[in-house]
Design brief:
28% of the residues lie in helices and 4% in strands. It is mainly alpha-helical.
Length: 110
Protein backbone atom coordinates (compact mmCIF):
# COMPACT_ATOMS: atom_id res chain seq x y z
CA UNK A 1 0.00 0.00 0.00
CA UNK A 2 2.78 2.42 0.89
CA UNK A 3 4.41 2.14 -2.54
CA UNK A 4 1.47 3.80 -4.24
CA UNK A 5 2.11 6.88 -2.11
CA UNK A 6 5.65 7.43 -3.35
CA UNK A 7 5.76 10.88 -4.86
CA UNK A 8 2.45 12.00 -3.31
CA UNK A 9 2.44 15.76 -2.72
CA UNK A 10 2.78 17.30 0.74
CA UNK A 11 -0.41 18.58 2.38
CA UNK A 12 0.15 21.97 4.02
CA UNK A 13 -3.62 22.18 4.66
CA UNK A 14 -3.71 19.11 6.96
CA UNK A 15 -6.90 17.85 5.36
CA UNK A 16 -7.74 14.16 4.96
CA UNK A 17 -8.82 12.64 1.67
CA UNK A 18 -7.37 15.27 -0.66
CA UNK A 19 -4.65 13.12 -2.27
CA UNK A 20 -1.96 15.07 -0.39
CA UNK A 21 -0.28 13.97 2.84
CA UNK A 22 1.35 15.66 5.80
CA UNK A 23 4.05 13.69 7.68
CA UNK A 24 1.97 11.82 10.27
CA UNK A 25 -0.90 11.31 7.87
CA UNK A 26 1.48 9.60 5.44
CA UNK A 27 2.79 7.26 8.15
CA UNK A 28 -0.74 6.46 9.28
CA UNK A 29 -1.92 5.87 5.71
CA UNK A 30 0.89 3.38 5.09
CA UNK A 31 -0.27 1.03 7.85
CA UNK A 32 -3.61 -0.67 7.20
CA UNK A 33 -5.04 -4.04 8.14
CA UNK A 34 -5.85 -6.67 5.47
CA UNK A 35 -9.33 -5.14 5.06
CA UNK A 36 -7.86 -1.71 4.32
CA UNK A 37 -8.71 -0.12 7.68
CA UNK A 38 -6.24 2.27 9.28
CA UNK A 39 -4.27 0.70 12.14
CA UNK A 40 -3.96 4.03 13.96
CA UNK A 41 -7.09 5.74 15.27
CA UNK A 42 -7.58 9.28 14.04
CA UNK A 43 -8.47 11.98 16.55
CA UNK A 44 -9.71 15.56 16.25
CA UNK A 45 -6.74 17.81 15.46
CA UNK A 46 -5.95 20.56 17.94
CA UNK A 47 -4.06 23.69 16.91
CA UNK A 48 -4.86 25.62 20.12
CA UNK A 49 -2.76 26.82 23.05
CA UNK A 50 -3.73 24.84 26.13
CA UNK A 51 -3.57 27.93 28.34
CA UNK A 52 -5.77 30.24 26.29
CA UNK A 53 -7.75 27.98 24.00
CA UNK A 54 -6.75 30.22 21.10
CA UNK A 55 -4.97 28.94 17.98
CA UNK A 56 -1.18 28.98 18.33
CA UNK A 57 0.47 31.91 16.56
CA UNK A 58 2.55 29.61 14.35
CA UNK A 59 -0.62 27.93 13.07
CA UNK A 60 -2.47 31.22 12.60
CA UNK A 61 0.43 32.48 10.47
CA UNK A 62 0.68 29.21 8.54
CA UNK A 63 -2.97 29.12 7.55
CA UNK A 64 -3.21 32.87 6.87
CA UNK A 65 -0.36 32.46 4.36
CA UNK A 66 -2.28 29.61 2.73
CA UNK A 67 -5.54 31.56 2.72
CA UNK A 68 -7.19 28.59 4.38
CA UNK A 69 -9.05 28.00 7.65
CA UNK A 70 -7.36 26.16 10.50
CA UNK A 71 -8.73 22.58 10.40
CA UNK A 72 -9.48 22.56 14.13
CA UNK A 73 -11.30 19.37 15.13
CA UNK A 74 -10.84 17.64 11.77
CA UNK A 75 -9.87 13.97 12.28
CA UNK A 76 -6.14 13.54 11.81
CA UNK A 77 -2.87 12.16 13.12
CA UNK A 78 0.17 13.67 14.84
CA UNK A 79 3.62 12.36 15.82
CA UNK A 80 2.77 12.23 19.53
CA UNK A 81 -0.32 10.12 18.97
CA UNK A 82 1.64 7.74 16.75
CA UNK A 83 4.36 7.36 19.39
CA UNK A 84 1.81 6.65 22.14
CA UNK A 85 -0.12 4.06 20.16
CA UNK A 86 -0.19 0.54 21.55
CA UNK A 87 0.64 -0.56 18.02
CA UNK A 88 4.10 1.04 18.26
CA UNK A 89 7.06 -0.30 20.16
CA UNK A 90 9.76 2.33 20.60
CA UNK A 91 13.11 0.58 20.28
CA UNK A 92 15.38 3.58 20.73
CA UNK A 93 15.12 7.20 21.79
CA UNK A 94 17.68 9.96 21.47
CA UNK A 95 18.17 11.90 24.69
CA UNK A 96 15.50 11.98 27.37
CA UNK A 97 12.15 12.95 25.81
CA UNK A 98 10.11 15.39 27.87
CA UNK A 99 7.79 13.55 30.23
CA UNK A 100 9.91 10.40 30.35
CA UNK A 101 11.63 9.12 33.46
CA UNK A 102 13.91 6.18 34.28
CA UNK A 103 10.92 3.81 34.45
CA UNK A 104 9.98 4.71 30.88
CA UNK A 105 13.54 3.97 29.76
CA UNK A 106 13.54 0.58 31.51
CA UNK A 107 10.20 -0.33 29.91
CA UNK A 108 11.67 0.21 26.41
CA UNK A 109 13.83 -2.88 26.81
CA UNK A 110 10.88 -5.19 27.44
Amino acid sequence: HARRLIGAPYDPFFLPGNGRFYCSELVSECFRDPDGNLLFALAPMNFKESSSGEPMAVWKDHFVKLGAPIPEGVPGMNPGALSRSDRIRIVHAYGMPRGWDETTWRNLSR
